[in-house]
Design goal:
Blueprint (H helix, E strand, L loop, with lengths): L11 E3 L10 H28 L6 H30 L3 E3 H34 L4 H4 L2 H19 L1 H7 L16 H5 L7 H34 L4 H9 L2 H23 L5 H26 L1 H19 L1
GO biological process, one term: cellular response to lipid
Pfam family, one: 7tm_4
GO molecular function: G protein-coupled receptor activity; olfactory receptor activity
């Protein structure tokens, strides 16, 4: 029987929403839709604002634009399956479609992590070498940095769907979430997943692990520089330029670490906990990042207000 099933795979997986609230899925789709509208509009506004305003064409805002693009990509990856489940009760996702969604979710997450490192380096240069900022972080350096971040994410995640594809699946096909994650699909396999686990761990260490250490090291340099500033006002001003980035780091890494820990060590926890943490991992950063940067960055806030004022005047005319 093992030989007969050695290469068998399900045609589709069954998605799971939030356990215990199945009867309220239709009504939950409305707040979920509002959350997605906020994420899509917020990140789109930031991207269009940075693109249209020449005064924002500096490395700090280019990296913010990359962060918004990654958040926008994550939102669009999860949107079809989540809204399909909650609004239309469409629970199935084709095997290959699940692998594609898995690839984009993990690669975009790795991309966002890399962008946060680039933003940390940007703050280090701006605080430690403000006079050389424009010569160190040129447009060419920013473009090459973005290309390296994207290439690293794609290369790190590219083998994952193929490692899943080689596994047999002939028992349960019910996933724990309303989208596909590597850990969630891997646990349904009917063969040894040692290679998948080792590669997944290696990829996480190579991307998120190295990135988190790099961000921590960057802030060590920043704090050393800030403490050397004589003026208290100068220290406060330097630290204030990092508040938005610190918030973005926490918004990204706290749900990510929570999902990873729960998948590896929280098997005894309720399915509701797994579902809420996974949804927070995909929904929180795209929704909160635009809000944080709009509130804390006066240049973006001013440009957005100007755009809406010009739009209102044009409509009235």
């Amino acid at each position: 029987m093992a030989d007969n099933h050695s290469h068998f795979q399900h045609l589709y997986f069954i998605l799971t929403g939030i356990p215990g609230l199945e009867e309220n899925y239709y009504w939950m789709a409305f707040p979920l839709g509002v959350i997605y509208v906020i994420a899509l509009c917020g990140n789109s506004i930031i991207i269009s604002t940075i693109k249209s305003e020449s005064s924002l064409h500096i490395p700090m805002y280019f990296f913010l634009c990359m962060l918004a693009l990654a958040d926008l990509g994550l939102t669009l990856c999860a949107l079809p399956s989540m809204l399909g489940l909650f609004w239309f009760n469409y629970k199935s996702i084709a095997f290959d479609a699940c692998l594609v969604q898995m690839f984009f979710i993990h690669s975009l997450s790795a991309t966002e992590s890399g962008v946060l490192v680039a933003m940390a380096f940007d703050r280090v240069v701006a605080i430690r070498n403000p006079l050389r900022y424009s010569t160190i972080l040129t447009n060419g350096v920013v473009c090459r940095t973005g290309a390296v971040i994207l290439s690293r994410a794609v290369c790190a995640v590219f083998p994952v769907p193929f490692l899943i594809k080689r596994l047999p699946f002939y028992r349960s096909n019910i996933l724990s979430h309303s989208f596909c994650l590597h850990q969630d699909v891997m646990r349904l396999a009917c063969a040894s997943t040692r290679v998948n686990s080792l590669y997944g761990l290696t990829a996480v260490i190579f991307t998120m692990g190295c990135d988190s250490l790099s961000i921590l090291l960057s802030y060590v340099f920043i704090l050393r520089t800030v403490t050397a500033i004589v003026s208290g006002e100068g220290r406060l001003k330097a630290l204030n330029t990092c508040v938005s980035h610190i918030c973005a780091v926490l918004i990204f890494y706290v749900p990510l670490i929570g999902v990873s820990v729960i998948h590896r060590f929280g098997k005894h926890l309720s399915p509701l906990t797994h579902a809420l943490m996974a949804n927070a991992f995909l929904l929180v950063p795209p929704v909160l990042n635009p809000i944080v940067y709009t509130v804390k960055t006066k240049e973006i806030r001013r440009k957005i207000i100007q755009i809406f004022v010009r739009t209102k005047i044009a409509a009235e005319s």
